[in-house]
Design a protein that fits this description.
46 strands; 7 helices; single chain; 4 domains; Rossmann fold; globular; mainly beta; Jelly Rolls; eleven-stranded mixed sheet
Length: 820
């Protein structure tokens, strides 16, 4: 038996005292890269004010000088190693990302925000929310909306987790802790170490699946059970934590089904990315993935000394899938983008970001992708990885791959990796959802919706195994795990999973993306407002905010990205209506001529969510053909998208407002001529309410055919200028000309100075052009900066018609008041 031909085209806190100093770039950027010289510091202006304070678990100070308020926070317990970037909150409001020393004992922040002048309280924050333990004595809203297991769902889970026909052998390799240097890590050295599962009796070359874990403590002491993330290689008495062995079940399952599986170690990056990177280690992680693929390519040819002979002639690197957990999620996206820029790329056809970060908002067209989001994530709690789905939907004109995003109810961040799971891990581990009594996500609550560690591990194995067997192996039987066809929700083992899905471009007709005003869309009897993001955040968008909430972790589609905080996020239609006993509110979509014959498609689909201000609701969906005949169905009979997600009533992280795909099978739309559909009408009920709507399309969901994108790559270059120059020229380039216009967003990020404002702008490349120069305004102030040369960072993000190449650069501004 052989697989079908592949498709082508948390951590325990250690004892001791931690000092946290948040000094730095307002966007949480890291220390300058090694080797970057800075001019001598200018003499600062006299100190105006110093304010100090303390609490039982921390102390802080604020010093005012010419360039703003310098905050220093000291904690009694070590800052935990997390995938999220630490922030400093003043009186409960986060003022920016923290800069931490290599030993994790000091964070600093420089800000001009006046709230920092006289704080009553200063504390650590994560994902925009102050780090406080939340408990609840209230019953949850809802019950977690458990799906009804079906025979099909149970069979799919069983099939995805079943051992296959092949015998599996290990072909691990380890070339030491300093085997490779990474330019994305300031040319510092890391390990080249991996576990490898190979199906020994499967004939020929096998598709390759590579796993990359996220950011966990790098080292631990077996005698004291203390962790250490301060140095690499590990200090004396400590050994590396084997995070890369935490996906053994998924690896064994896939290998037994005929895949070569490689899980790589990234401890060296984890221990150094806070101090030696400009992007929290994303580039370094992508480079490490490609270093391993290069090594595997040599092993396949039999020219890699030290590699197992089991690998010779057994690795099909024209069919590669990548899974990345947490920071590893953005890392594997970066690897796919770096790979696409190579003259001879590997065949990376499928990527699965698992509970991922998305600090830079890269897009990934032309590669099949499923984003997995855990509802009870206590680490990357704002679920920013949703942007990978949202941003990529319309970013490539010839994109022809399956794209989905899954919300796994009851799952936390850590338990997908057994080495991060208490009771299963070798080293110290913990539940990242720390509020154990939370009524929805607390593991100690009688009303909890949480999965056990074993249940979550099974769900993770099923999704990883099913995804790669679908996309690399052509096993279409696993499509229902990712296309929402199970109905209101899918069950994967004990897990309830909700779905967003976008069909490949060639099997989809986009009728109304609802990303902005269109003459084909009208709203009567209610209000239809196009919106994006949060109130109070300046963006380059002309659209208003969708919500006035300050709880950014409750809205994954709009959570601000670390390096693109002012870039428009997920525009859509907010449809609201008042109470009405007679005239019902309607949102009407006229189907354009040329798109009215929908017989080739399986379903009418759109994304929807009940808004956060109102009760659960419903809509009636109606199709009207050219002769005025109609067919209608209630959304509630197709999906539970218009029911609110569960809330404990106290957690600032819950409930999540997250759009689900509503899919109406066209075979059930009886009485209308599917060759001549003229109108789609969404009718509201008589009771007042509101919903978010997006992505109206006719589609047939299939796996599609993916591979490295051949779109041009967009890159940004560094620049420098004197403060009194007025502007600094920044050049953005394309690797090749496009026949159609290309757009990309440029975000400047404040450093420790005040000369370059944090702002974003959209850049358009007209067809057949490859370079644009943008002049960023520089403020010529009278402040003596703390250094003669201030380094700011600039990032490009969310391209359309291109993909990201070099996504960040430095702008250096020389202070004309300085004598240096």
């Amino acid at each position: 038996m052989s697989i079908p031909s592949p498709r082508r085209p948390r951590r325990r806190r250690a004892a001791g005292r931690v000092r946290v100093t948040v000094a730095a770039l307002a966007l949480g950027l890291s220390l300058p890269l090694t080797g970057t010289s800075m001019a001598a510091s200018a003499t600062p202006e006299p100190v105006a004010t110093t304010v100090t304070g303390s609490a039982a678990d921390r102390s802080w100070s604020v010093t005012e000088s010419g360039d703003g308020y310098h905050l220093t926070l000291e904690l009694n317990d070590p800052l935990p190693v997390r995938d999220a970037v630490p922030e400093i909150a003043v009186d409960g409001a986060s003022l920016g990302y923290a800069r931490q020393t290599a030993d994790g004992r000091t964070l600093t922040l420089v800000t001009t925000d006046p709230r920092a002048a006289h704080p009553d309280d200063v504390q650590v924050a994560w994902n925009g929310t102050a780090d406080t333990t939340t408990s609840s004595r209230h019953a949850p809203k809802g019950t977690g909306r458990p799906g009804k297991p079906t025979a099909d769902a149970a069979a799919l889970t069983a099939a995805a987790t079943a051992q296959g026909p092949y015998t599996v052998a290990r072909a691990d390799y380890d070339f030491g802790d300093t085997a490779v240097t990474l330019s994305g890590l300031s040319d510092r050295s890391v390990e080249l170490r991996a576990a490898v599962w190979i199906p020994t009796d499967a004939k020929g070359e096998r598709p390759v699946v590579l796993f990359l874990h996220g950011r966990h403590s790098a080292c631990w002491n077996a005698d004291t059970a203390k962790t250490n993330n301060t140095a690499w290689p590990c200090p004396d008495g400590y050994q590396p934590i084997p995070s890369y062995l935490g996906y053994n079940d998924a690896a064994q399952t896939l290998a037994s089904q005929g895949y070569a599986v490689v899980s790589i170690s990234a401890d060296g990056i984890n221990s150094q990315d806070a101090s030696y990177t400009d992007d929290a280690g994303t580039l370094a992680r992508g480079q490490l993935v490609l270093d391993h693929l290069d090594l595997l390519a040599r092993a396949d040819k039999g020219i890699a000394p030290g590699m197992s002979p089991l690998l010779k002639g057994r690795l099909d690197l024209s069919h590669v899938g990548l899974m990345g957990h947490s920071r590893g999620g953005e890392g594997v996206v970066k690897a796919a983008l770096l790979n696409a820029g190579r003259a001879h790329p590997y065949g990376i056809e499928a990527v699965l970001p698992l509970a991922p970060i998305d600090f830079g908002r890269e897009t990934l067209p032309d590669v099949a992708m499923t984003v997995v989001l855990p509802y009870c994530d206590g680490d990357v709690s704002n679920q920013q990885g949703q942007h990978f789905f949202d941003d990529t939907r319309y970013s490539g004109a010839d994109d022809d791959v399956l794209r989905s995003s899954l919300m796994v109810m009851g799952a936390d961040h850590n338990f997908f990796n057994t080495e991060w799971t208490p009771g299963a891990a070798v080293a110290p581990a913990s539940d990242d959802w720390s509020a154990s009594t939370d009524a929805v996500c607390g593991s100690g609550s009688s009303t909890t919706t949480r999965l056990t560690a074993a249940e979550q591990s099974e769900a993770g194995t099923a999704l990883m195994s099913g995804f790669f067997q679908l996309t690399l192996g052509g096993q279409d039987r696993f499509l229902p795990l990712f296309d929402g066809s199970q109905g209101a929700s899918t069950t994967v083992g004990a897990a309830t999973v909700h779905t967003e899905v976008q069909a490949p471009g060639r099997s989809r007709s986009d009728i109304a993306p609802l990303t902005g005003p269109s003459p084909d869309v009208t709203v009567t009897g209610g209000t239809g407002t196009y919106c994006a993001g949060f109130t109070g955040r300046p963006t380059i968008s002309a659209l208003g905010a969708c919500t006035t909430s300050t709880y950014t972790s409750r809205f994954p589609s709009w959570t601000p990205a670390n390096y693109a905080g002012n870039v428009e996020a997920t525009p859509l239609l907010h449809f609201t209506w008042p109470d009405s006993a007679e005239t019902r509110a309607e949102a009407v979509v006229d189907v354009p001529k040329g798109s009215r014959d929908v017989r080739r498609y399986d379903s009418l689909a759109f994304r929807a969510a009940v808004d956060e201000t109102g009760p659960d609701t419903d809509l009636t969906v109606q199709l009207t053909d050219g002769r005025g005949r109609t067919a209608a169905v209630a959304v509630s009979s197709l999906s539970d998208a218009l029911k609110g997600n569960p809330s404990s009533g106290t957690s600032t992280l819950l409930p999540k407002t997250w759009l689900q795909t509503v899919s109406w099978p066209l075979r059930t739309a009886r009485g209308v001529d599917l060759s001549d559909i003229r109108r789609i009408t969404l009718t509201a009920p008589a009771t007042a309410g509101g919903v978010y709507l997006s992505d109206v399309a006719f589609q047939t969901v299939r796996a599609g055919s993916g591979g490295p994108s051949d779109l041009p790559q967009v890159s940004v270059a560094g620049a420098s200028a004197a403060e009194n120059a007025g502007t600094v020229p920044v050049t953005v380039t394309l690797s090749s000309a496009s026949r159609t216009p290309v757009t990309v967003n440029l975000q400047s990020v404040a450093g420790t100075g005040t000369q370059l404002a944090t702002a974003a702008q959209k850049i358009t490349f007209p067809a057949r052009t490859t370079s644009r120069t943008v002049r960023l305004p520089v403020v010529d102030d009278t402040v003596v900066q703390s250094t003669a040369d201030t380094v700011y960072k600039i990032y490009v993000s969310v391209p359309v018609g291109a993909v990201i190449g070099q996504d960040y650069a430095r702008v250096t501004v020389h202070d004309d008041e300085s004598t240096a």
